[in-house]
Amino acid sequence: MNYLDLVKKQYDSGKVNLSGVKVSADFTTTALIQAATTIANPVTHTRKDETKFKFTTYGLADVSGGSYTGQSPNGVQMKIEFMTDALAFEFKTIGSIGTYSVFVDGELTNIDAISTPNGQAVTYVRTEASAGVIKRMRHVEIYGVNTSFGGLFTDAADTVTSEITIDPKPFIYQMGDSYTYGTGAGYVTQAYGSSPAINDFYVFRNALGMDGIAEGIGGSGWNSTGGQVPASRLQNRLLKMNRKPDVVSFALAYNDAAAINTGTNASKLVASMGDALKVVRDAMPDVPVIHVSCATPKGITPQIQRVIDLTHDFCARNNIPVIGISNYVTSANSASYTGTDNVHPNPLGHEFRGLAMARESLMAALEGRSLVPEIKPKGFTVIYIERLRFAVDVKREVVQAKTADEAYWMVKSREYSNPDLRIEIISVA
Fold first, then answer.
1. pLDDT (tens digit, 9 = 90+) per residue, 248-260?
2. CB-neighbour burial class of residue 341 (10 A; exposed 0-12, middle 13-18, buried 19+)
3. Which CATH code fits 17-161?
4. Could you tell me the CATH superfamily of domain 171-367?
5. Who contacts 31 (Cβ-Cβ below 8 Å, separation ≥6)?
6. What is the reported pTM?
7. What H or E segment, with its residue span, contains residue 47?
């Protein structure tokens, strides 16, 4: 099933809701910096117990400090989900600088992201119901980055199970940069901070009634090196996920703009996209790939336009839909939708972008139009000898054509319109 068919199926099933993050009126989550749980009659639900918890991540490991964690440090989210009838529960984090968001029945319980302090050995994260909330089974999702999970604590009378009773959702995996990481999506003690669970990616896939995990590394792009090479990230993370995605999303490009004027970097960008696409299509040939267009928080500069042209051309030639939201946040409205750096979205900007991504996808699906860009003509340099009567000139010209053969005939055809002109093509590059 292609991407837009999947979106249309979600719409036909009544699962699309173009709204932002829903905030719970019944539950709140706070961080407790202390050595023991505050649950009065606690039962410990062991961190590795798969009868109690369902994990979505890569590189799950049980570390000596007593936590169950995704490979760390990681830009990949880790999701822990379970069903419980507890009106108060706590989970323990150990020895990591993590960021957490907790959802109960799909509603966010902490607007401020829970950020565990640097060097803090133990933090308990507590979720509790408001007065008057009845006891019943509810679906809980804990999202985190640099996550450690040291087990769950409930009252002895409470039930915890990994048997999820809700309908399964299509699953999207996104590889991106700091936007995907969630920089600016949440406030931590009212400072500009990160919340990977309520960033533009979360808003986007949630609005389409889908599930998903994002891998975001700040400052990364198609031209990144070392451990941030996109193909390596996919090999080491996507292919090691414990859940196969229904869609893979690429959300890189903005950080490539600064150095894109060099021909070398332009070539590397295209080659890097090709390497990344090969990883996905070799391992998951039936999984559609989509691309989120380059962010434009300071408007479309010549460098940004070059990146957009390169990435869209690649997508056109490889049948990849592009979620085109480059002009949604610009220099004209960045004061409303970006943070203090005028680059990263603020919480409103993340919601704005995420809903735009969902809306662009839905409208294309309902209207039966493709999101794959049209193939634009390439620029071919044609070197030729031009003879006009007794004059002879060697000329060089850039011709916009789809193929080298077309470029040849675009120049050659001039001799037919001018009987005195004779053209001899030397080369087409």
1. 999 999 999 988 8
2. exposed
3. 2.60.120
4. SGNH hydrolase (3.40.50.1110)
5. 114, 115, 116, 123, 124, 125, 126
6. 0.86
7. none
